[in-house]
Amino acid sequence: MNQRQEASVAHTRAGAAPSWRTARLVALDLEGTGAQDGADEAILEIAAVPLIDGAPDVATAYTTLVNPGRPIPARPWISPGLTNDALASAPPLAAVEPGLAALLDGAVLVGHNVRVDWRLLQRRCPSIRPIALLDTYKLARAVMNTPSYSLTNLLKTLDLTATVDTMAPGSQPHRALWDTVGTALLLGALIHIQWQTDPAIADLTAVADVPLDGGVSAPVIEEDQLHLF
Hints:
Layout: H1 3-13, E1 25-32, E2 43-52, E3 55-56, E4 62-65, H2 84-88, H3 93-104, E5 108-111, H4 114-124, E6 132-135, H5 136-143, H6 151-157, H7 161-167, H8 176-194, H9 201-208, E7 209-210, H10 222-226
Parallel strand pairs: 1-5, 5-6
Antiparallel strand pairs: 1-2, 2-3, 2-4, 6-7
Helix pairs in contact: 1-9, 5-8, 6-8, 7-8
């Protein structure tokens, strides 16, 4: 543990801030056409899962396919099931945005390599206004030593895969709902590893925040997407 993390733990133990469990957290995952499309990258699927008392509340989750308004060529990295036939009957992003904004505005967004999702969401839905971004990839790098920090590997290492399968029936890895539920469960597991008592949100962001202005303006880095899976 470095000095900043030690200070955060001491700050929390002193009772200076409420537990992270009481904060308004929403786990988020987007599936898109890929960063190779640049400014034309389209959102194909969205899932947003609120955390209640530190656990994913699947009953109030928001998940939907999104009609991109154009044919999507077959690409090996596009998530399974996101075909043109499946997307044809989905709502367009303009119809999705108001409901998504109601859930995400004013919340702390939690994602695995969250800047990838935020970059795309900010570009396509610039009206959405979270208050902070929390990255489970960064947090895992800070508290675990493992050959791979991909979401699927971390969940397997922490024996959480079966729990995700149960909580996200009908979904699968690399689909938005499965990955979002997995991210929410991963956050709680990483916190349990690192802190003896519940940290405050400030303690978490001291280790694993991503600047909100790091979305549209940040360059696309191929390595970013490698950490998603």
